[in-house]
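[Q] Does anyone have a clean structure-token version of this?
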Amino acid sequence: MWVVQPDICDDETRFASVVHLDTIFRAAHLLPVYGKEFVPSYLNFSQSLDAFHSYYVNKYIDHHAFKIAF
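[A] Here you go.
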């Protein structure tokens, strides 16, 4: 699996841009890289993109994702 990270600007903020819906080909299945610390029990799904610094891209989620990513 590949490891991806968000782009960071010089002032330590995350780079943001608008992505047009007609340019999205397929959704990606992201798994967080947990590290050595415990995941807090109060963490919910809406905070997961901000809580982790890098993610695995799961290209084995189904046949179509594997065919596109590989």
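[Q] Thanks! Anything notable?
[A] The two ends are 10 Å apart (CA to CA).
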